[in-house]
Structure formats: C-alpha cells, structure tokens
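Memo to structure team: turn this sequence into structure tokens by end of day. - J.P.
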Amino acid sequence: MPFFWYDQYYLFLVVPAALIALWAQIKVKTTFNKYSGYHAARGYTAAMVARQILDENGLQNVRIEHICGNLSDHFDPRSNVIRLSDSVYNSTSVASIGVAAHEVGHAIQYAKNYAPIKFRAALIPITQLGSSIAIPLAIFGFAIRMDWLMTFGILLFSAVVLFQLITLPVEFNASARAIKTLETDMILDEIELQGAKKVLTAAALTYVAALLVAIANLVRLLLLRNRDD
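Reply from structure team:
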C-alpha cells in the first residue's frame, strides 16, 4: 500500500500546525515593525534599559553585546551575556525596549534559580539530538517494520515536545518580569507599555505555535505506529 496512505497524518496534522507557526512568525515581525515606529518619550535605548534593569537586580556581571541580525536577541547563560540585535540595541522604540527587557528577564530567571528554565536547560542536549534524528529514526523504523526503532524515535521526540512545553512558562514569565519592571521603573508610560505588551504577546505566540507543531508531529508518529500494529 502506498506510504502516503499511512502518512496522510502529515497532511492533516503537521501541515495545519506548520501554517499556524508561519502565521505566528509573520505576526511577530509585523507587530515588531509596527511598534518599532513608536519611540519612548524618555529616549532610552534598549541597551541602556537592559543595563539599568540588570544593575537594579545586582547583575552587573552580565554583559550586553551588539550582534548582527534582526530579532536574533537572546541571553546566553554560558557566557553570561545578553546579545541584542541590530534592530534592537540602539533603538529607542517601545518594541525594542520590550524585547531587551524580556531578555533581561531570562538573566534574572537564571540568577534566581527559576526552576522551569533550569529544567529546560537540562533538556537541551537530548532535545538537540531528538530534533535532528528522532523523526527520521521513527519513520525509518516504520518503513522497515522495526518496531523498537520506531518506539525509540518516538520516545526521543517526546523530549522535544516536553522542551517546547517547558518553554512556555519560561517565556511567559520573562515577559511578565519585563512588563512589570518597565512599568514600576516608569521606563515606559501607559500607552508605550501597551505597545511593548503587544510585541511580547506576539512573540509568545511563536512558542505556542512551536509546541503545536511538536505535538502534531508526535501524534502523527503515534498514529503511524498504531496503524503499523
């Protein structure tokens, strides 16, 4: 029987989830671009805001670096560095300030031993392996009727789903910390704060979409395995 008959789950499960993920990526870019045109009245750059919040939390040891790219911002716990992209570092927009404060939120999470981010970090090695070979292993096991190989691939990919699930509270918490600090320190006024919230909310949708894609792929593999039985 043609393989597509068995793997039509890809069309009905994975493709819709992938389209949602694509929409989420477009949403975050358009929202960021929109609020990149709204500049904060106080005139602080995103890098300045990040430095201020870090220092307030006793994190003078965390450095801030300027990196190339667009929305490639991240906190690297191994180097203890927050890297802000071209579109964020020197910008005074409410979008850029929100993104920078969010990355500082991750640095604070590590400093305060926030449990979900520690758990997520522990999953990274197996997740990196699982994201690259789990699905090919499972599909190959299915194709050659090797049940144990397909089961191993499914278990390995389950770690990817768990990683994506744990990512949600980590990202939501970092954004909540960012918005609270921007409001408490009066870095942004009420209207500006709404713009920053919309940018971070749009960014959060990308993580929800990534989880949906991971779940869709896992369900697909489980259905294939059951059909093979």
